[in-house]
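Reviewer 2 asked us to include a model.

Predict the structure of this chain.
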Amino acid sequence: MSQQGLDAFTHLAAPVRQALSERGFDQPTEPQRKAIPPLAEGRNGLVVAPTGTGKTETAMLPVFSAIADRDDVEGLQALYITPLRALNRDMRERLDWWGETLGVEVDVRHGDTTDYQRSKQADDPPDVLVTTPETLQAMFTGKKLRAALEDTEHVVVDEVHELAASKRGAQLAVGLEHLREYAGPFQRIGLSATVGDPEEVGRFLTGDRDCAVVEVDAGSEFDVQVTNPELTPDDEVLASELVTDAAVASQVRTIDDIVGENDSTLVFVNTRTTAEGLGSRLKEYGTDIAVHHGSLSKEARIDVEDRLKSGEIDALMCTSSMELGIDVGSIDHVIQYQSPREVARLLQRVGRAGHTSGEVSRGTVITTRPDDTFEALAIAKMADEGVVEDAAIHHGSLDTVANQIAGVLMGFGEISARGCFEIIRRAYPYRDLEQESFKEVVRELADNHVLWLEEGHDRLEKSRGTWEYFYQNLSMIPDEQNFRVVDMASGRTVGTLAERFVVNFAAPGEVFIQGGEMWRITNVDEDDEKVQVTPVEDPGGEVPSWTGQEIPVPYDVAQRVGRMRGETKSAFEAGQSRETVAQGMAEEYPTDEHTACEALDPIERHEPPMATDETLLVEAYGREVVLNACLGHKANETLGRLLSALIGQQTGSSVGLETDPYRIQLEVPSGVYLGDVVDLLFDTDPGHVEPLIELSLKNSDSLKYTLAQVAAKFGALKGWKGGRGFGRDRLLEALRDTPVYDEALRETLHVELDADRASAVLESVRRREVAVETVGERTPIGLGGHASGQELLSPENADASIIETVKERIQGDRMLLFCLHCQEWETKRQVKRIDDPPTCPNCGSTRIAALNPWADEVVAAVKRADKDEEEERMTERAFKAGSLVQGHGKEAVIALAARGVGPRNAARVINKLRDDEDDFYRDILAREREYARTNAFWD
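Predicted model (C-alpha cells):
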C-alpha cells in the first residue's frame, strides 16, 4: 500500500486495513483521502463528489472501523439512508462483502421487506441497516425497533442534495431529530453530488451542528462538447423513414454514431416524453438502445439495467432517475439530448462516465435550436468555472410539520406541545418556525381527528385517527394517480400512464409509445386503473405525456445566456462576420464553428435592441405581445401570470399566456397595446406581487391541485388520489383561512413560481438598473421560443387509426343541449344522435348551447335572475356556445365535445379553412393535446 494510502487508511481499525488489502485498495480515491481522517475521528461530515468516486466506502469505512473497534457490539449501530427504494445491487454487494469480512451484519429494510424479515430485524437488529427516509419514519412505531434505535451511533445519508431540495428531505431532517430523542447525539455523514452551497447542505444534514465539508472538484476531470449536428443530404431520406423531420434525423444519426464509437453509453433526456419519442426513433434507425424512466415497471427497468451492464445492449436512454447512481456498470460516454437546464445536472450526468477506469468523464450535449445551444454553452462554461446552483433547501413546509407531529406521537404516544415544537425546531428547515404557526397546525390536526388535544393543556396525545393518518402518509411524495399498462399477451406490466393522459387520449384502438415500443390500446379499465395493450409495428404512435416533468432553467443560467447574447450582438455591431464571431465562440466555449454559426443566426438577423442580462425587450404584432426576458422559467412564469392577471382585470377579458426561460408570450384582447405592458412593468408596486399573484391564482387549477395534495397531508382530505370526483372549488373555499391554504399558497408562490425574483426584477426596472426597450414588430429572437421547438413525432403524422379513434370517441360522447331562447328544453344525447342543426322541439330555435353532460349548474345559472360573478361567467360561456351552434350546426357541437376545448378554441377550430375532414379532427386533437399539457396552469 502506497504512502498516500497509508496517510488516510491509518486512521482505520486494523481489521479494516487488513480487509482493504484483501479487496485490492492500494490507495484511496480523492474523497477517501480527504474525508476518512475527520470521519474516523467521529466528526459529522459531508462528502461532495461525482458519482463513481468511491463515496460509499468513504462514508462506510470509518463506520465499519468504529463498529469493529467496539467490544461486544449489540443493537443497531448504523443507519444508511438512501432515497432509492432499492439500493443498487453493486453497492449492496460491496456492503455485504465488507460486512462478511469484518463480521458486521448488514441488512436492508424498505417498503417491500417481508413481514418475516421485519420481525427478525426487530428481534435481532443488524449492526448496519440500509433503509429509506419513509421506512425510518415507520421504525419509530414499533416498540422493539425503537429500543434498537437507541443504540444508533452513525447515520449515513446518501444523495443528501436530492433530499434537501424536497419535502421528503424536510421530513427526514425532523426524523433525524426524532431519532436523537432515543439515541442521543450520533455521527451524521452525508454524500452529495456537486452543489453550489455545500456548507448549507451540511447544516441541513446536521441541524446546524459541526460538520466537516469535503469537496472534490467535479469540473477538473470533465470533458464535454456541445454540438448541433450538421445536416447531410441523406437526412431528408432518413427523416421520411423515421416519420420526423431532417433535423431530428440528423440528431438520431449523430447519437447512433457516438453509441457505435463506445462500448457503453448513457443518453440522458429531460422528460419521459422525449425518452419515448427519441428512443422509438433510434430503435427504428437500428441503434442498440433501451429506454429507462420512472414510469416503466420495476421489472422492465431492472431488465435493461442488467442488459447494459452485461453488454447485451450498447446504450440506455434515460431521465433523471439514472442520476442517482443506479448500477449499470462502467460507462464510457454520456450524451445529453438538449440542454441539461442546470449546471449541477450536467456535472451529475456526465460525471457518470469514465470513473471506474480512472479516466476523464466525457460527454456530448446535442442541441436542437439556438436557445438550446446558447443555454448548453452557458452551462458548460459555468461548470468549467465551478459556478454551480445551490441545493435549494426546502424550508418551512407546514404540511411536513403536520406529518411529523403525527410521526412524533406515533413514537411517544403523548408529548408536550412544547417538547414536540422543540424537536421540529432543531431540524434545519424549521429553525425559523414560529410557535403560533405550530399551534395553528396542531389545531388543524385536532379538528381533523389526527390527534387528541385537550384545550388549555400542553399535551398532544395519539388517537385512533393518528394511526390511520400516519400509515396513509408515510411519504411526503405527492400521490399521483397512475394507470398500469398491461401487455395482454404476456400479462406483464409494461409501466404506468398518468391519469391525465389516459383521460384525454386513451381509448381502444389508439397507438402510443412506452419503453420505446409501440402499443395499441385494447381496453381501459377505470375501476381497476388498468390499460390493456397489445404490441404493434407503427411509427406514428402518440407519445405519452407525464405531468410535472419539465426541468426549470434557473435564473443564473438564463442571465448567462443573456450576457452571451449581448457579447455576440456587440461583435456583430462592431462589423465582425458570423464566421469570425463563431470562430471566437468555438475558442472560448466547448463547441465547433458550425454549431456556433447556427446558434448565431437569429442574433445576426436581430436588428432592434436585444434582451440581455441587463435589458428587457417588449415586442408586439397584432394581438401578440412578447416580453423578452432572460430570467429563467420560474421568474418568467410569475411575471407572465402577473401581467396576464393585471391585463385581464383591466379589460375583463382572458389573456393567453405561454412562457419559457427567455420569453413571456401574451395574447392580449383588442385595445391592449405594447405600451400598456411597458406601463405595467414600471407602475406595478414590487411589494404587491405576492397578493396580486394570489388573487390571480384563486380560480386556477394549479393552486387547487396543490391544495388538495396539501390537504391530504393535513388529514383534511382522506384517501385523496388525484382529486377525482371531488369539488376542488368547494375544497378551496372550505380551507381558505387555514394553515392548509397558507401552505398550498406558499408552495405555489415560492416553489412552483418565484414571487421574490419577480418582485426584485420590477424593483430593478423602477430603479433603471434594468433597461426596458420596445419594438413594434416580431423579432428573430422573440420568435425563437416554444413554437420553433421540434416535435419528435409530429401530430400531423398521427395515422388514420388515431384519427378514426378520435372521431369514434367524440361521436360516442354525451352532450347536454339547452335552448337559450325558451330556456325550457334540455336533453342529454350522444353526439352521433344529435341533429344537424340542433333545434329546440318546443320553440324551433337553433340557438342551442352544447355543454358538457355534467354542466347542470350552467343551465341553472342561465335561468337564475340574480347571478353572482361566477354564474355570470357561466352564462356568458353558455351563450357563446349557443352562438357557435346557431352559426355552424353540428360541427360546433363536435368541436365543443372535445376535451378542454371551450367556445373560444372551438371557434378557432371551426373557422380554419381546410379541405379534409380528417384535418378537422387533427385540429381538435391538437387542441386537446394543448389542454392536457397546460391545463394545470390555466386560470
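The two ends are 66 Å apart (CA to CA). The mean pLDDT is 86. We have added this to the supplementary material.
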